[in-house]
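Moderator note: this is an archived Q&A kept for reference. The question asked for a predicted structure of one protein chain; the sequence and the answer are reproduced below.
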Amino acid sequence: MEFRILGPVAVSDLGGEVAVGGPRHRVLLAALLMDAGSVVSTERLIEALWGEEPPPRATEMLHVRISELRKSLRRETTDAPDLIVTRRPGYLLDVQPEQVDACCFERTTVAARAALLAGDPGAAASQLRTALAMWHGRALADIAERPFAQPEIARLEHLRAQAIEDRITADLAMGRHREVVAELESLVHGQPLNEQYRHQLMVALYRSDRQGEALAVYRDTEERLREELGVDPAVRLQELRDSILRQDASLGAAPGEPEIRLRAHNVPVQITSFVGRQGELAEIGALLADHRLITLTGVGGAGKSRLATEIARSQVPVRPDGVWVVDLAAVLEPQLIVPTLASVLGMHDHPRHPLRDVVVERLRDTAAFLVIDNCDHLLDGVAELVRPLLQTAANVCILCTSRERLDITGEVVRQVGGLSVPGPEGAGARSSEAVELFVDRASAVRAGRPFTDDEIAAIGEITRRLDGLPLAIELAAARTATFSTRQIVARLGDRFHLLSRGGRGALPRHQTLRAVIDWSYTLLTEPEQRLFDRLAVFVGGFTLEAAEVVCCDATSGGPDGDPTDLLARLVDKSLVVVDAIESPEYRYRILETLREYGLDKLGGGRHPDRPRGAVPAGPTVQAGGLDAARERHARYFAELATWAEAQIGTSEEISWLGRIGFDEGNLRAALAHSLAPAPASHEEALSLPIAAALGWYLYMRGRLGEGMAMLERVLGVVDARPAAPPEGAFAGALLISGSLATALGQLDRAEALLLRALRVNDQAGCARRVAIGSAFLGHVARARGIHDHAGTRYRHAAAIHEQLGSTAGVAWSRYDLGLLARDRGRLDEAAEQLGESLDRFRDAGYTWGTACAAWALATVALRQRRFDGAVPLLVEALDCAAAAGDGRGVAQCLEAVAGLLSARRDFPAAARLLGAADGLREALVAPLPDEERGEYTAVVQRVWEALDPEAAQRALREGSALSQAAAVAAARRALAGAGGVTGRVDLLRRRGETGPIRPG
């Protein structure tokens, strides 16, 4: 049975055409043929059939279509297996490549291109005519309008055009110039901007004694390109015109003499496929048009050499003077660099001239492309060679790979990082480059067994923890012959022992994960090594100030030399990464694999996650530094936390929130160290301020259950110790504990904690904390319905904030009083208070406060049934809550939008958003506050009364399955329909349309 997509979709066997059914069956068959021999997921097939809006029972309908198509393709003999095989997560069309015309076409054109490059144009022309005869119209002609098919159509049509160009090249090489003139004129007429066809037409005309017409083709090309694109013809076309004017003898190729020159190169043939990096290939390809020296830098194992090889391969067709790869991995002496390059170029010593001069002179008038691979240990020597080459050979391009740049004039540096990895929750695992590489390499040792969804999730975690580094991923994939993916995940704590068996054909330093990092480490100076080791105590990144304090303390025997200079050198050598985030200063980080290595060195081989007795090999281990470095790290971040907690309720509250977010990993590591069983670490002076700062951060992010569990652990440890804790730090921890308990609805516990915190802070004279504690006691009273007492507490807090001059504190007081007025039914008063709060937060640029105030004001508008006024406020609240990372705030906005939609009688959409809000609250352990429960219950009741139970449950399930980002997008779409809002909130703000809703 044969399958055709080079034209309309068709199937035939010995009996002639096979009927495959109607249009949907043809679409389904085409989707399977485009990935013949591979599993096509159910989701992709549904998208191919119905696009972005499939019917509710799409999966069942797909099964029916598959069954019908399977029956159409069933062979006459009943014992033959079906061609369409069910295989998770979808279906597979089990056919051989030679049964699909597109596969045959591609194989034939590849063989023809090889024959052409090998100097056999006759064989190439014959093969290309056979390949082109397989076409019967436009690819996938009968489903060309389907979006899923268009990328494949474009790809196949491009290959067809390339085959036509190659066939004409072969014909010209065989002296058939007169025969191809008419065809080329037709092709130029159809594609007037195709310079390759015009080049071939000029050659054919010139060889047919039609020099004037050849030049006329050039003039027409020049005019068209300038008029339509504003560019000149390619240099190659200009050179052909000059050759015609000179009547260059090389243009008059005799019949049978190949026109093309063999493109000399030594680019190695790769045994494994090249996965990912398409963006890097395109970017570097574009850079080569304007730059002649590009250096790929990156940590060992990042895939620099493989990327450079693929770039070199792409240059072969356009570099007639050769593409040469010079590998310096085995070259240990600088004086051997030039002889190694000369050997690759086929050159030898000259009796009268230095070999360097001979090489430079040989390359002077060429447009050769050189790849100088593995320069790390020979940077000065490579720079001494490259500099005169760039100055003398104007058209030579050089691509270097190294962990460090050459640092010479004209160099463009591109950092090669890890492959793309799935998100923290495993989102997009199957489409990530790192997972694709793992699956590709593991398939070689799994005998073709496909990976399940659970295994793909584990692979996503593996690749994420290995920083997407290709070498580490390939070593891990090889382990699937022995371990399951979950077993590999469990053993990544000792990754250097796990990933210790590489391929026998690899370089020694690429055979284990430790060996590749050992190579980089040994190239560091001793002060650089010491700083690198100490930087490993940071989790998730660090600032320059933090590195100076933690790693270069005067009492610790810090690294010799200027720490700023040492850090810069580690950045240059690709061992530290610069994160240019939106922050007053840059942050730096070490990849997790390098961090594990540094902890090994710092701890003298005693890594907390390594099995007993597993001591690493490699360069000399520095013993005795891990505990001291962690102690300095904990003290630094305890000071940072103390400062940060002191900003709560002040105008600086905004700025510290981002800093705590950046350093959450460091604060958690410091907290763990301060609670460790070692006697020296039992210091409440460290644990309490860290816990307090982290607690407020988690509160503001809506991660209430997580924050409460952390505070309970810390206060439990403190209460169990005989010594009294530091008063100020203890009061701060009590305050945030009470605040979290309030938000979790644990009112009795919250009141006890807050009263205790209030007494301690009042005695200590900390007015700021007294104001915050009073406000949260007001929340407790409000939740219990004791509104007068709540008002007293809120006004007390407001008075203190006014005295302290705290912009944020005053804004929060107005917010609290506004919600209290709303709960008491005083909606005009609520709008006044909340409008002032929103104005203050907007003026301060406080995203989280703006989200809260805009949501609260929207709920007032909804209760006033001013729906048009609520819509832009809800849009603003959603956007700000999402930007601030406040999941609880997003949930309450979704609930408010659901209330609006239920009032507008869009009950299915309201139910989906209620489901999404419930899912978020459950994940965050952030229960619905009692004071919001009445309105929420009314909305739920309206939805349940309007929808039948099955439809309501289905909508709730659909909503709960949405991610936070998807839920926010769905809510914004609903708001756009409800109020004509297009998302241009900034414009609305300028017009004053989202300002506070005033009485009357």
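Archived answer notes: The mean pLDDT is 81.
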